[in-house]
């Protein structure tokens, strides 16, 4: 990318940062860090389990759904 110069002010702005073409988990980890992402997933999975009364046998489903939700929420919050 090249920088752009405004014809009226002579100001040169740097090129816009582009978001790399990565998977949602990798992209979320890149911008927010592994520990923060993991903590958010754990909390979200806990609240999913709480909502269904902690019935056993759904732990993996809770985790995977929480992971997808957190990654989607984190990516939505990234600068465009």
What does this structure look like?
The protein has a domain at 22-76. It is elongated. Strands 1-2 form a two-stranded antiparallel sheet. The relative contact order is 0.16. β1 (4-5) and β2 form a beta hairpin. The protein has 80 residues and is mainly α. The mean pLDDT is 78. α1 (24-32) crosses α3. It is built from 3 helices and 2 strands. The two termini are 16 Å apart. Helices cover 56% and strands 5% of the residues.
How many E-type strands? 2
Strand/helix succession: EEHHH
The percentage helix is 55-70%
Structural shape: elongated
Rg over alpha carbons: 19 Å
Q: Which whole number gives the mean pLDDT? A: 78
Percent of sequence in beta strands: 5-15%
Count up the helices: 3
The quaternary state of the protein chains shown equals: single chain
Low-confidence stretches: none
Helix-and-strand structural type: mainly alpha
User: What does the main sheet amount to?
Assistant: 2 strands, antiparallel
For the largest sheet, list the strands in their spatial order: 1-2
CA distance, first residue to last residue: 16 Å
Core attributes:
80 residues, mainly alpha, 56% helix
Brief characterization of the structure:
This protein is mainly α and 80 residues long.
Task: Describe the secondary-structure layout.
Layout: E1 4-5, E2 12-13, H1 24-32, H2 34-51, H3 59-76
Helix pairs in contact: 1-2, 1-3, 2-3
């Amino acid at each position: 990318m090249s920088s752009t110069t405004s014809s009226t002010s002579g100001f040169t702005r740097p090129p816009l940062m582009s978001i790399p073409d990565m998977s949602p988990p990798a992209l979320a980890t890149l911008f927010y860090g592994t520990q923060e992402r993991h903590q958010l997933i754990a909390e979200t999975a806990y609240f999913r389990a709480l909502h269904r009364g902690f019935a056993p046998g759904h732990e993996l489903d809770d985790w995977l759904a929480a992971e997808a939700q957190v990654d989607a929420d984190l990516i939505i919050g990234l600068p465009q």
